[in-house]
Specification:
heterodimer, A: mainly beta, seven-stranded mixed beta sheet, four-stranded antiparallel beta sheet, B: 106 residues, 0% helix, globular
Chain lengths: 121, 106
C-alpha cells in the first residue's frame, strides 16, 4: 500500500517561492501507470487542482496557476516536488499530493494527509 | 474553464436518502469521481468512473451520471456520513476540475 507524505516549510514570505515535496513510500515514483497530482484547499474553502505529472511524460498545470507552477520528480529521493513562485496571501492553503491510475480518468485513489502553508511576512 | 456546480449543503435525517448533485456542461459525456472529506482530513475516494465504488466503501453509496447532472446517492444515511463531498472530472482545457463541494449534515 503506497503512502504519501507532504513536507516543506509551513510559512513562506510574500513574493517568495513555495516548495513542497511529496515523499512516497511503499512504491516507486518511476512506476508507470500513475498520475501524480497536487491539489490545494484554502482555509474554509473547496479543493483546487494545481497540476499533475507522470513518469516519462510532461506535466500539466491548472491554467490559472501555470505561469507560477512547476511539478517534477526527484527519483533519488522517491519524491514528487511542487514549486509555486511569487506567492501571495491567496496561496495560503493546505496542499495535498495524490496518486491515481492512468487508466481511470484522473481519479486519485491515494492521498497524503496534507501540509498547511501560510504566506505571511 | 470548465465549471462543476454543487449545492452548498444538504440536510438529511438518519436512515433517509441523501442525493448530492454535480452540474456541468455535458457532464454526461465525462467520467465523474466523488470524494468524501471530513474536517481536518484528506479527501477519501467514494465513487469513481460515475458509478464504481472505491475500495472499502459500503453499498449504501452509489453514483450516476447523465446529461448535465451527476449524482451521488447515499442510502440509509448514518451519522458517520456527515462530511463534505466533492465531484471531480477531467477536462481537456482545464485539466482535472473539482466541484464546489456539498456539506452533508445528518
Amino acid at each position: 500500500q503506497v503512502q504519501l507524505q507532504e513536507s516543506g516549510p509551513g510559512l513562506v514570505k510574500p513574493s517568495q517561492t513555495l516548495s513542497l515535496a511529496c515523499n512516497v513510500s511503499g512504491g516507486s515514483v518511476r512506476s508507470g501507470g500513475y498520475y501524480w497530482g497536487w491539489i490545494r484547499q484554502p482555509p474554509g474553502k473547496g479543493l483546487e487542482s494545481i497540476g499533475y505529472t507522470y513518469y516519462g511524460g510532461n506535466p500539466f498545470y491548472n491554467p490559472s496557476l501555470k505561469s507560477r507552477t512547476s511539478i517534477s520528480f526527484d527519483t533519488s529521493k522517491n519524491q514528487v516536488s511542487l514549486s509555486l513562485t511569487s506567492v501571495t496571501a491567496a496561496d495560503t492553503a493546505v496542499y495535498f499530493c495524490a496518486r491515481g491510475p492512468t487508466n481511470l480518468g484522473f481519479y486519485f485513489d491515494d492521498w497524503g494527509q496534507g501540509a498547511l502553508v501560510t504566506v505571511s511576512s | 474553464s470548465y465549471v462543476l456546480t454543487q449545492a452548498p449543503s444538504v440536510s438529511v435525517a438518519p436512515g433517509q436518502t441523501a442525493r448530492i448533485t454535480c452540474g456541468g456542461n455535458n457532464i454526461g459525456s465525462k467520467s465523474v469521481h466523488w470524494y468524501q472529506q471530513r474536517p481536518g482530513q484528506a479527501p477519501v475516494p467514494v465513487v469513481y468512473e460515475n458509478s464504481d465504488r472505491a475500495s472499502g466503501i459500503p453499498e449504501r453509496f452509489s453514483g450516476s451520471n447523465s446529461g448535465t447532472t451527476a449524482t451521488l446517492t447515499i442510502r440509509r444515511v448514518e451519522a458517520g456520513d456527515e462530511a463534505d463531498y466533492y465531484c471531480q472530472v477531467w477536462d481537456s482545457s482545464s485539466g482535472y476540475v473539482f466541484g464546489t463541494g456539498t456539506m452533508v449534515t445528518v
